[in-house]
Design goal:
It catalyses: D-alanyl-D-alanine + UDP-N-acetyl-alpha-D-muramoyl-L-alanyl-gamma-D-glutamyl-meso-2,6-diaminopimelate + ATP = UDP-N-acetyl-alpha-D-muramoyl-L-alanyl-gamma-D-glutamyl-meso-2,6-diaminopimeloyl-D-alanyl-D-alanine + ADP + phosphate + H(+). It is found in: Cytoplasm. Keywords: ATP-binding, Cell cycle, Cell division, Cell shape, Cell wall biogenesis/degradation, Cytoplasm, Ligase, Nucleotide-binding, Peptidoglycan synthesis. The chain is an alpha/beta fold. It folds into 3 domains: 79 residues, Udp-n-acetylmuramoylalanyl-d-glutamate--2,6- Diaminopimelate Ligase, Chain: A, domain 1 (3-Layer(aba) Sandwich); 211 residues, Mur-like, catalytic domain (UDP-N-acetylmuramoyl-L-alanine:D-glutamate ligase); 155 residues, Alpha-Beta Complex (Protein-Tyrosine Phosphatase, Chain A). 31% of the residues lie in helices and 23% in strands. A hairpin with a 2-residue loop joins strand 15 and strand 16.
Amino acid sequence: MTLWTSAEAAEATGGQVTTDWTATGVSIDTRTLQPGDLFIALKAARDGHDFVAQALDKGAAAALVSRVPEGVADDAPLLIVDDVQTGLEALGRAGRARTEARVVGVTGSVGKTSTKEMLRTVLGAHGRVHAAEASYNNHWGVPLTLARMPKDTEFAVIEIGMNHPGEIAPLSRLARPHVAMVTIVAPAHLEAFESIDGIAHEKASIYEGLEPGGVAIWNGDLPTSGILSEWAKRCGGVSVSFGESQGCDMQVTDLRVSDTGSVVQARTNGAELLYKIDAPGRHFAVNGAAVLAVCEALGLDRALSLAAIGRWQPGAGRGQTVTVALDPADRNTTLSLIDDAYNANPASVGASLAVLASAPVQHDIGRVSRGRRIAVLGDMKELGPTGPDLHAGLAQLPATQDLDRVHCVGPLMRHLYDALPDRQRGLWRETSAEMAADLPRLLDAGDVILVKGSLSMALARVVDAIRDMGESEPRSEGRG
């Protein structure tokens, strides 16, 4: 299906085309580019103009550029603009303007991507949904997501993130959501902010982009909930709180968490709701309430939403539980791996440790007769001068104290390693590669292992090393 014609893209960006073309997609990376994509020559670590010839050779329909790159023929299909980033933003703005989709914006210190995916699943039960396949939530990711949106989209979910003050509001104004949500405010990117309150104000600025009469949804369980509430009332036509606290408009009233998932009761506008989340974790269950609040705000069929939310599962690196079979001859000789290696900050680590602490282990099936709960934690980045104390403080969490062993990766996690009692202290390694080489021999059947850290710590290497101990599959696929 045609996404952009050369005439439409030129009108959107004010650029000049060298020849007529039609694009079926939009790409910023030649490694994942598909034939028919419009290639956007952004400047990042490398100048995208250096890859235009390669993109065209791979079948790109055209390239959005600010100049004719070297090695590219004068009659090559190009859209020439003054500035590529500005051109992408204009394309995204036009993509948003030409659709009648109802748009949901999502931000927060924790849970943006998992909540976006939960919304994709639930809204998908009601119509055609568009959302980024990855965490495309920054200054190029948001306009790229909008530029990729098909004209016939019925619901769009736009994830919006930040690293510094002043980033969220312009992206929200670009997305123009009908509903905007803040999942949680927690210590993250503290090196760029003076306090948690500063982070709360930045997150709440997502409401500045709301369409007239739009709905502002916010977490009512936080020390900074007052800040979110003030912004929601000032910017939103409707303000809706969610959480476990008394007075929340979408209140979780009962929550039962097991190793396979969560069963949740909630109340909104006098109605009692019952839903299941097919993943363990209080944070997933409460964010599910926020997703249902979105559905209520959009006036969607409640029964359909409640059924759909039970079909969502976290993806790889986002809390997915994987069963690793260590002995092909004995399918009961397994360990469980909680793959949460994509990102980390104090709040998300605390939530994941709580999941691990409550996970059931298996006894008498391995070399070690007693199954163990084991955490492998990598550095949490962008915490500024508070970083060392926040890492060491993880040792005092009740969930941490319930664990059998904690292995640490990176210089900041050395502070946690030193704070742990001898009975819990496992390995400390400088890098994930070193941990991946040394850890597997210490694991055994019956264990449950959590792997979590900031993306730059590359803890996916540790995940892969554990998976390589045997055959692995998501646990939910192995259940009857």
